[in-house]
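Loading example: each entry is read as three labelled lines plus one structure line.
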Amino acid sequence: MTATATRWRSLLLPVLAAAVVFVLGWKAIVVVGNYPPFILPAPEVVGARLVEAWLEGTMTPHAWATLSEIGLGFSIGAGLAVVVGYLLARSPLAEKLLSPYLVAAQATPILALAPLLVLWLGTGLAAKVVICTLIVFFPVAVATMVGIRSVDARLLELGHSLRATRWQVFRHLELPAALPQILGGMRVGVTLAVIGAIVGEWAGADRGLGVLINLARGSLFDFPLMFATLLTIAGIAIVLYLTVVLVERALVGAWR
Amino acid sequence: MLRSLVALVIVALAAGCQPSPAPTAPLTTLTVGLGYLPSVQFAQFYRAQQQGYYRAAGLDVTFQHEIDPNLITLLGQGAVDIGMADGTSVIPAAGQEIPIRYAATIYARFPSIVMTGADSGISSAADLRGRSLGIPGLFGSSWIMLQALLHSAGLTPDDLDIRAFPDFGQSAALRLGQIDAATGFRNNEPVQLALQGFPTTVLDVDAVTPLPGPGLTVGTATLASKRDAVQAFVAATLRAMDEIAADPESGLNDAIAVVPDLGINRATQLAILEATIEMWRAPYTEANGLGAIDAEAWRESLEFMRGLPDSNIPATLTVEQLVTTEVLP
Amino acid sequence: MSRPATEERALAAISLAGVSRSFTVDGRPLPVLEQISFEVPGHGVTAVLGPNGSGKSTLLRLVAGLIVADHGSILIDGLPVADADQRVGLVFQEPRLLPWRRAIDNVAFPLELAGVGRVERSERARRLLDLVGLDTFARAYPHQLSGGMRQRLAIARALARDPSILLLDEPFSALDALTRERFNAELLELWQRTGTTIVIVTHSIAEAVFLADEVVVLSARPGRVVARVPVPLGRPRPVTAMDSAGFARAAAAIRAHLGGTPDDLAAQEAAAAPIHDVLERAGSPAWFDPFGGG
């Protein structure tokens, strides 16, 4: 089996096994608790609704909208975070100036900020992208800062002895050394981005999986669809997380 | 000795057989779900509570505050016995086989309306073409109302510039002239705006599509197990409504007794209450009594909602699966 | 092997005169080197030996141009040492390889930084790998190599820019004694083939005598030149030279300058003020050790 195929298999098998256990547990709860479908539908009902929703095209536009919010938000947030994280790591002045803002921004709950952002930026894509950017920023920035700072001073001396420029030091020494940390921060960031997108949609949107949850719950009273949407969101989060893990294995796995 | 004992037993038995004078029969507890927040709009419930009508009917009533989606599932589960649910929520819910029935009309006129500035030049649905309109979102009773209103003028939502106000700021936006029209509730925003010196023109759907407004909704299991209690509750509530309609001030006082915060601005609350009372009355309830359910209106509304785009209401759903008259007086 | 003074200076590849350096520790100046003067002739091998804390590593960094002397001058081929002087190749105590690069890319690293094209640096890297006997391991990652192989890789890298001087800071101290002897012999072979000038800092008298033409003995902190002991052994120098009388005499002379018995040496080291090696800063995370032992 090729290396890539083995990598996929080693990631997917545990996920599939976990999914099976989860579904069985769910079914057991429904049967034992005798829950009606509008409280807790059985897994097969939700499964059927999930397939139906995708085939009918109900899910697609909403999933696409949420993915766009996550994609843009994460890219911008993580990109900015790596730059700022580097600054924080290497410039004591930057750290003193910026840290209070960073911590304050992080401490403010997204749930409180989201409606304000929707008020200012409207119910379109912009507010959600900003929310995702904000929520991704802190973990990646901190991970970058820690990673860059933890680069061994002996390697930096090597760089000095070889007359490496600042950019060369970053590109060839600091970044590769910090990459495991940065990717670790991105693992956290990408799952938070999913939450950010949904919360943003709840603050006001006309499309997205968060909107679909509200529609299913409050307008259509279609609870199997609501659960199917939740599963879709969870699925997206898992796929994104595994993607970061795979990237990490590809970039970092070889030399550890 | 034995004869004394026998006499004692006979007396005791005789005493036991007489109807006991004082001990009250155990009260039936009822959990009642009212809208999102305590409001003067629920004055009839507060009055029935304050004046002891529920207690006299053998009921121990507790109020809960829930939003519609939660309330409907709680009613279906039986966790809440009776709730004020919007008719346009009952239809899709019953369509998804959630076991509830609409049992008494409270709002005979549909609360959700479109309002415009008095000098906007908009006096009918047709005038909305090409204008801007604010709505909390493309869901809920206001969205259904809007579609019905536009449909009556041969318009669709695409013929307007519809803007979402997820923070429910569409009323303020209308006031500031940012939009030409906005959705609202007949007994709320137009009343407040008028008090602020901003009169509005109100467009409603009652003549167009008789959508069912909020009313007392009960889970089918509860209807089966607590039928008499529910019936007593409905009767007591309708009585309170009658009394308040005749004397709104007394209704306001009862409301303030239960929810003291309402006393902060009596004038506004009274205006809202009076507007609310207006909505309890419609030709059908005038003719058939408060609480009466207009099955024909429901049939029309069912057809209308079934025909909306993205509707998930099954073709097999009938009005009999939506409403019941068994607990009406 | 002694040369006339004038000739010495003319051929001297490295020339230190009155070099002093202190560091500031806890706000107070700590002199590490005082009045260091010696020359290393072109194509010569000089060993610098002394107890811990005698400033050997500091001396090497001064010659490499990584730090600047407080007093005195250091000349390479008559010209003052520049910052990170590229006439010098450095081999540190640990291999300091980049764990995310393969062996060949590690060796090519200095060339890459200098802007040498991909094809040329690949070719030169291969030749260097060949030189240190690692040509079959070109595609291996450092974590796949043994400690000795990593150090050889570090030496190959140090030679990448074709320096006239090779400075080695206790390069073999992490290896076992037998491997160390072998590496010493290989280093001499390398020296014959490349013709560089070598200064090696060491803790081992045997290593110093085996490798060098002259052994500079430093005192305990602050380091001063206690003696310059010539090694009267010929070249090429087989391993068996370590058993010769000349070897023993030179070793004895050195030992005498160090203060006699190993116990004296230990006492001197203990007397030196305890100090964190200012060049080694804490913070290497547990997971990341490009210098992993063995």
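The mean pLDDT of chain A is 92.
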